[in-house]
Amino acid sequence: MSEEIPVVSEQEIAQPILEFIRLELLGPGDTIDMHDDLLSGELLDSLGVLRLSTFVEERFRIRIQPTDFVVENFQNVEVLSRFVLRAVGARNGALVDAGD
Amino acid sequence: MTMLLHRMIEEAADRRPEATAIRCDEESLSYEALARQAHGLAHLLLETGLERRDRVAVLLNKSLEVPVSFYGVLAAGGTLVPIDPRSPADRVAQILRATQATHLVSETKKDKLVEAALAGCPDIGHVIGVEAESDQAYRNHSWDAVAALASDRPPEVPITDLDPSYILHTSGSTGVPKLILHTHRSAMSFVDWAVAEYSLTAEDRLSNHSSHHTCFATFDYYASAAVGATTVILTPSVLMMPASLSTRIEEEGISVWYSVPAALIQLSLRGNLETRNLDSLRWILFAGETFPDKHLRQLMDQIPSARFSHVYGSTEVNVCSYYHLPEDGDFVVPLPIGRPCANATVEVVDEDLQSVSRGGVGEFLVRGSTVMSGYWGEPERNRVVLVRRPTAGDLEEIYFRTGDRGRVLEDGNLTFVARADLQVKVRGHRVELGEVETALLSLESVEEAAAFTVPDGEGSSSLRAAVVTTVPAESRSKEIQAALKGKLPMHAVPTSIAVLDRLPRTATGKVDRRALQTHLETEDAPRHE
């Protein structure tokens, strides 16, 4: 993880991501936590992963580069949050309005 | 040379027992291990009452257990019914009931789905691979029980090449799946052709991109086994992440690839290919959809080591024609589907099944040893699609009606025009959806395109389209519409064009028009706060 002053915490990033997945992407009765495999094909399909990445880009105002679409960044909500935190930090170090 | 699918792994295990048959993430199976485990499953199936031709359904995520199940069922003389692992319970139940399957092979991860699906399937007596505390209306058998029966020796059961091998189901567009029955012979005929045409050897490493229930997997698994090559199963995690997929191709040294174009387009656009060495790739086969030529040319530049082959067919006929792209990349557009395979005849006929004059557009009829036996349990449909035509000696030959329309080009190559059922009526005009998509794809900014119709509420249909563009925000629907007006008649210009991040796709990777229709209808609905 980057050593820059964190602009938001991993937890603050993870919560809205989990909420988005629960509300928008999961089937009825499915549950999700920080360590569930997002790429197993069980929870999300490829369109679901795309919608998730679009949500993350809009919500956290970052741009995910093609080279960042790797398993290591998307395997679960924990690593995704860590990746977003790094991307937010790299963007400008400014405060992110995570509440809008 | 064997005429039975499962004998191929036995022969490969005799020749080179230690050779790797299957790779899946970090795991491997040698031919010897694959044969032993498959025989274990075959013995278990027979001990639990399986009889020749009985149906055994396989509901598994991608894993080493998939090929073990395939060969185990076949070695027991059963008919394999691979089911899309993403199917909802009612769909699984529908397939189990329709095929009257007696056994189901699955995994503990799918326990809830299995339980829900089996609630209404009294024919299933045995479930293998799902750990459960107690038996239900059916008996449970663990994978450990299969391993305990592992053996070098296959069970001795009578099987001929005309016995059924598998029933594949189509996914998606209509509510009811078509169940397509093949024999050992129809599958082996395809395998023999593929081995010869692509000069497959034991050194090859074939990708498995598609799910095990698709006809693509027939090539990935069986053509590989025929020569004792390795099949590399690509799991959803790498398939969803193109930059990870390209790393996997490089690390695994994949030499032969077969998929729909969509997977290759993602690889080309987002696979970070300039930093990878993919020289191991020597053949790239694609089928199922149009490959937009700008993406195809780019991919050919990115992977200069590979020859590219456009293959044509369907689950009903395997592959029946092929077109190897010229090595210099100088191919014609639209890309031909080439010449009939050595084991197939393709004819172009009119509505009365009479041959059309050379160059005329008609429906493709296919005759050959790779054609299916028929749709399971659908005598009426079989009478319509498996047509008999007279030949010399007062005999008849059986042809499959593909529902695809095309023609023969001057150089003898076949070219595809459209699906007969993708011809729609819009306010009284006949529109080929394929033509609308081709026009959209010819625009610089359009990466992927799908055209479809939705009811217009006035008894007719309204033409719509969805696109993925390279220029995100600027590329507005209205601009694309304006550009199309120079290319298509007014009635063939979609009334609205949605710009999406990605098109929804079916399990094989084809555009899922039904999902698009539903998705965009929802988008149109007023949002309730």
Mean pLDDT reading of chain A:
83
- Counting copies of identical and different chains, the oligomeric state is heterodimer
Strand content range of chain B: 25-35%
Give the N-terminus to C-terminus distance of chain A in angstroms.
25 Å
Low-confidence stretches of chain B: 524-529
The largest β sheet of chain A comes out as: none
Name the chain pair with the biggest interface and residue counts per chain.
A-B, 22 and 23 residues
How would you sum up the major sheet of chain B?
5 strands, parallel
| Poorly predicted sequence stretches spanning 5 or more consecutive residues of chain A | 1-6, 94-100
Instruction: Tell me the total number of β-strands of chain A.
Output: 0
- The neighbouring-strand order within the major sheet of chain B is 4-3-5-6-7
**Class based on secondary structure composition and strand pairing of chain B:** alpha/beta
The portion of residues assigned to helices of chain B is: 25-40%
- Report the average pLDDT across residues of chain B: 91
Radius of gyration of chain B: 23 Å
List keywords for this structure.
heterodimer; A: 100 residues; mainly alpha; 4 helices; globular; disordered N terminus; disordered C terminus; B: 529 residues; alpha/beta; Rossmann fold; Luciferase, domain 3; 4 domains; five-stranded parallel sheet; five-stranded mixed sheet; 16 helices; 27 strands
What does this structure look like?
- The complex is a heterodimer of chains A (100) and B (529).
- Chain A is mainly alpha-helical and 100 residues long.
- Chain A has four helices and no strands.
- Chain A is globular and about 40 Å long.
- In chain B, α2 packs across α3, α7 (184-197) crosses α8 and α11 (261-270) crosses α12.
- Chain B is an alpha/beta fold.
- Chain B folds into four domains: 7-183, Rossmann fold (3-Layer(aba) Sandwich); 205-340, Rossmann fold (3-Layer(aba) Sandwich); 344-418, Luciferase, Domain 3 (Luciferase, domain 3, Roll); 427-521, ANL, C-terminal domain (GMP Synthetase, Chain A, domain 3, 2-Layer Sandwich).
- In chain B, the strands form seven sheets. Chain B has a five-stranded parallel β-sheet with strand order 4-3-5-6-7.
- Chain A binds chain B through residues 37, 39-42, 45-47, 49-51, 53-54, 66-72, 74-75, and chain B through 61-62, 85-86, 109, 235-244, 247, 269-270, 272, 501-502, 504-505.
